[in-house]
Amino acid sequence: MSGPNEDNTQLSSHFLGDLLDSIIVDVASECHRIAKLGLDHNLEEEEKELRLSAQARARVADPSNSGETNNKYVVDIFGRTHPSVASEIFECMNCGKSIVAGRFAPHLENCMGKGRKARRKVTRSSTAAQNRYSRGSPVSTYSPYSNSTSTNRLSNGTPVGEEYSNGTYEEP
Amino acid sequence: MSHSHKLVIKSSVSRPPTPTPTPDANKDHQDQKPSLQEINTKFIESGEKERLKELLRERLIECGWRDEMKALCRAFTRKKGRNNVTVDDLVHVITPKGRASVPDSVKAELLHKIRTFLASNAA
Q1: In CATH, what number is assigned to the domain containing residue B75?
Q2: Where is the segment annotated Disordered (chain B) (predicted)?
Q3: Domain annotation covers residue B27
Q4: Is A67 part of any domain?
Q5: Which residue among A23, A28, A31 sits closest to B56, beta carbon to beta carbon?
């Protein structure tokens, strides 16, 4: 009579095999289902890739699409074109002037006191804003603007504690 | 009234004698070693089989075994053609590699748990 331990080992292996077979059938069944329902889009990988690369080559060779650098008007992946300078006009929230969107960032530099000459411009709103800057507390109304103007200044390593540091730091 | 609570054994009552346990080869007070069938039943009915199956499934997913098996199936399906594949085909494709590539740690973990179950249920 074999000891209980040996029996147990064999028995355990038997049960493990049983569990494993069951899981194997599950996996096979699932793969079968995917195959029959055509849910595996990458199945005919090679064929598809050949087809897609042929399409891409055709598109590149097509003379009606120029490369990005030749054209003033770049075509994006949806086929739309954008002019190189944004032409929409809207009103600056800081000073109320009508500004062309493409010139808005440089306008803000002056308008909000970044440029050398701009400091001289004292309007009620900008002094109030600058006072707030010097106290160091963030001003939520100006957040969309200062990001665009301050990013190029801060990229040289000045600490970005507040977003509104362009008013407080001395220019080099 | 008190009489009804006493156990009264009347000789006129005929009933079959209580069977005495028949002596057997290897005995304790316990029954003989349960059959495979009985163990299996207990395995399933106690929910242990399902629990262990889920554990095994989880481990096999974690270690990438399942993905390997699926890749084998896909390769086979690609060759044979998706409309000609049967579940049986796929089972035969996966079984040898599947049984062989279970990581040792996973095997050990499951075997340990099964052995524990057997020890407490079948001796």
Answers
A1: 1.10.246.140
A2: 1-36
A3: no
A4: no
A5: A23
Tokens 């600056």 correspond to A92
DSSP-assigned beta bridge partners for residue A81: A75
pLDDT tens digits, B26-46: 445 455 677 889 999 999 999
Counted residue by residue, chain A has a size of 172
B85 in A contact zone (CB under 8 Å) = yes
Instruction: Say how far residue A88 (Cα) sits from the centre of its chain.
Output: 24
* pTM confidence score: 0.48
> In this structure, are residues A137 and A119 in contact, taking their beta carbons and an 8 Å threshold?
no
Whether residue B78 lies inside any domain: the answer is yes
B73 in A contact zone (CB under 8 Å): yes
Range of the structural domain that residue A52 is part of: 11-61
Q: Taking CB atoms and an 8 Å limit, are B57 and A35 in contact across chains?
A: no
Same domain, residue pair A55 and A91? no
Question: What is the DSSP annotation of A78-144?
Answer: TS-EE-SS---EEE-TTT--EEEGGGHHHHHHHHTT-STGGGG---HHHHHHHHHHHHT---GGGHH
Of A8, A11, A19, the CB nearest to B52: A19
Tell me the average pLDDT across A47-66.
75
ipTM computed for the complex: 0.73
Q: Pick the residue of B84, B91, B104 with the most A CBs within 10 A to test the interface with A by mutation.
A: B91
